[in-house]
Amino acid sequence: MPAQPSHNAPPPGSDALRADALRADARENRDRILRAAREAYALHGIDVPISAIARRAGVGVATLYRRFPTRASLITEAFTEQLAECAGVLDEALEEPDPWRAFCRVFTKVCAMQAADRGFTHAFLARFPDEPSYAGERDRAEEGLALLVRRAKEAGALRPDFDVSDVVLALLANNGVANSTQAESAAASRRLVGYLLESFRARPDIKQLPPPARLGLDRLGGPE
Amino acid sequence: MPAQPSHNAPPPGSDALRADALRADARENRDRILRAAREAYALHGIDVPISAIARRAGVGVATLYRRFPTRASLITEAFTEQLAECAGVLDEALEEPDPWRAFCRVFTKVCAMQAADRGFTHAFLARFPDEPSYAGERDRAEEGLALLVRRAKEAGALRPDFDVSDVVLALLANNGVANSTQAESAAASRRLVGYLLESFRARPDIKQLPPPARLGLDRLGGPE
Questions:
Q1: How many Cβ contacts (< 8 angstroms) between chains A and B?
Q2: Is A86 exposed, middle or buried (0-12, 13-18, 19+ CB in 10 A)?
Q3: Between B117 and A9, where is the model more confident?
Q4: Can you spell out the DSSP letters for A34-102?
Q5: Does residue B12 have a pLDDT over 70?
Q6: CB–CB of B191 and A200 under 8 A?
Q7: Taking the model in full, what pTM does it have?
Q8: A100 shares its domain with A180
Q9: Which residues form the domain of B170?
Q10: Which CATH number belongs to the domain containing residue A173 in this structure?
Q11: Into how many domains does chain A fold?
């Protein structure tokens, strides 16, 4: 059948309709790939091979690369929602007048997100210099966290020898718990967070701690 | 050359000497396999394949299986020394008159051993029903630990809501820290242990914790 001239509402079989269908197809592929990536990252962390994600999505590796030319573009896109959620938690916490409550809320929330999703902390904390908007969000989160720590210390609620690297220490510990406890991971992580917050609180009788280890936030992107 | 009759000190080339040499050879192979196994477990945990251990020891897989017919026999033999060390720490702690100091000493020591050797905690806590002497030591350690916890609570030093499963929780957390911090693992683990002991201490103003997760000691043998 020969193509008909294009109108405002193209009749069935027209070029425009075909283009619409193609776009819908592409969007569906894209969504399917992102869903598969999120699932794979949640289960196995962000080091899972691209081919495994393509298989899980039911698309070819070539199709995946056409939508997401780099590994970083797929990771950052897959985690955009959680990154926004995390940024929201931080923004809210920075409005909270009680600095200790603000610190506890963020710490608790980030640990819960980490326990629910193996990929999230890795993705959140890994550096992707070629993805400037993602890197910008990440840096903003790091600064927000440092500000919360400083305020909670100045208020005399967080122990004075608390080091920003202790947040990383705690996230690594939480990772160890979440990764080994399967069905109990949320409960185990909550219990650990309860203990850690107890140990972070300033008190008149705190015991001296061993010095902080040199841990940067990028530690969480490393091998487990 | 015909074999000479055997004397107290057999002359060179005799059957007895050859048997001695064979025994020395076998012993050397055995030691080499155990050394390789300890190194491999320390780096990669006890799930490392037998073939990788044979390769590291420079012996064939058949030779390895001749010396250690089962995986469990190799693991338990490789960890005999550390198990004895751990049992010694526990025995000493059970003699210590101050129950809080006893608890802290054992907790600190076990966490340090875990940070130094990825394989140790797995080997120590995994159940090997076919290796009764090993299983016996392990059960004794578990009982000793439970006794230390009870005494420290009764003395009012350990918080009353501390659960024995919290030892497992802490070991999983310590594992997460030790496995992700490479050169800093000892320092990072010490810092975490310092925080955890702070949170375990009984105080007049403790905050209620989320309930303990259902964690058995066998959790540590699971996937990471």
A1: 136
A2: buried
A3: B117
A4: HHHHHHHHHHH-TTS-HHHHHHHHTS-HHHHHHH-SSHHHHHHHHTHHHHHHHHHHHHHHHH-S-HHHH
A5: no
A6: no
A7: 0.78
A8: yes
A9: 80-221
A10: 1.10.357
A11: 2
Are both A105 and A172 inside the same structural domain? yes
Quick: pLDDT tens for B66-93.
999 998 899 888 888 777 788 888 899 9
The one-letter amino acid at B118: R
Of B166, B188, B224, the CB nearest to A179: B224
Chain A neighbors of B169, CB-CB under 8 A: 177, 188, 191-192, 195
SS3 for A8? coil
> Among residues A54, A78, A102, which one ends one of the domains?
A78
Task: Count other Cβ atoms within 10 Å, centred on residue A66.
Answer: 13
User: Given an 8 Å threshold on Cβ–Cβ distance, is B209 in contact with A198?
Assistant: yes
Query: What's the CA gap between A94 and A140, in Å, rounded?
Result: 12
Among candidate residues B78, B108, B127, the one where a domain is terminated: B78
Q: Are residues A71 and A179 in the same domain?
A: no
Residue A215 lies in a domain: yes
CATH, residue A52: 1.10.357.10
d(CA A200, CA B21): 61
In angstroms, rounded to a whole number, what is the distance separating the alpha carbons of residues A47 and A53?
A: 11
Residue of chain A nearest B167, judged by CA positions: A192
Contact A198 B198 (CB under 8 A): yes
Does one domain contain both A145 and A178? yes
Do A113 and A159 lie in one domain? The reply is: yes
The closest CB to that of B181, out of A166, A203, A213, belongs to A213
Q: Is the ipTM of this complex over 0.85?
A: no
pLDDT per residue as tens digits for the range A135-177: 888 788 888 889 999 999 999 999 999 998 899 899 999 988 9
Query: Could you tell me if B138 and B86 lie in one domain?
Result: yes
- A129 and A140 together in one domain: yes
